[in-house]
Design brief:
Elements (H helix, E strand, L loop, with lengths): L2 H14 L12 H10 L5 H11 L6 H16 L5 H18 L8 H5 L6 H11 L9 H10 L7 H11 L5 H14 L27
């Protein structure tokens, strides 16, 4: 896919999704960090249900750490992998208090040093909480990037690096959420909704579906 086509594709996505944003509910960088750690192999809807009960009780590293693992598990036990997630969230809360004065750090290196935080989570925090032009490649973005041929790659890091190179500068900050939302609601896994897709004529996917 050439640069002109990519620019047109992102222009259209931006017009179709004028307020691209995460569907996780949060009001501070720490709440977002907790929500993103909980969202691994879980739905945003499921995470929002759990955090709606958790955050009014504990939404700072101090308050979450004070809950302890068992206390935290009571709030998140409806979410997959809640045992390991509780352990990581308690540990990262402790580390934030010990090393960062209770604040979520602004650098990838410091974020990735937190328990339960890998490259993808760090990219989400940098982009969504702090406005950095990072792109966290999840299953939706990986699928859309490969299907459309915006940034085809064999693994998430390859796709991320290509998106960093090829996404037009003016769309870099929002590209992450534009692609996720497009993948979640239009370019879905089993049968993409090509008939209602605003970029269908630009997309280079050979097996487009017919309008229903």
């Amino acid at each position: 896919m050439n640069a002109a086509k990519r620019r047109q594709l992102f222009d259209r996505l931006a017009a179709a999704i004028p307020e691209p944003a995460t569907e996780l509910n949060y009001s501070t960088p720490f709440e977002l960090l907790v929500a993103v750690v909980l969202s691994a192999q879980a739905t945003d809807k499921g995470v929002n249900k759990a955090t709606a009960k958790l955050f009014p009780v504990a939404n700072t590293p101090q308050a979450v750490f004070a809950l302890g693992e068992d206390g935290l598990k009571e709030f998140i036990k409806t979410i997959g992998l809640f045992n390991s997630k509780a352990k990581h969230i308690i540990e990262l809360s402790q580390l934030l208090l010990e090393k960062h004065a209770g604040e979520v750090p602004h650098t990838r290196e410091d974020l990735e040093a937190l328990p339960g935080v890998g490259r993808k989570t760090a990219n989400v925090i940098l982009n969504t909480a702090f406005g950095h032009p990072t792109i966290a490649v999840d299953t939706h973005i990986f699928r859309v990037a490969n299907r459309t041929r915006i940034a085809p790659g064999k693994n998430v890091l390859e796709v991320e690096k290509k998106l960093e190179r090829h996404v037009p500068r003016e769309h870099k900050k929002d590209a992450h959420h534009l692609l996720i939302l497009h993948g979640r609601y239009t370019c879905i896994a089993r049968k993409p909704r090509c008939g209602s897709c605003v970029i269908a004529d630009l997309c280079e996917y050979p097996d487009k579906t017919e309008p229903e």
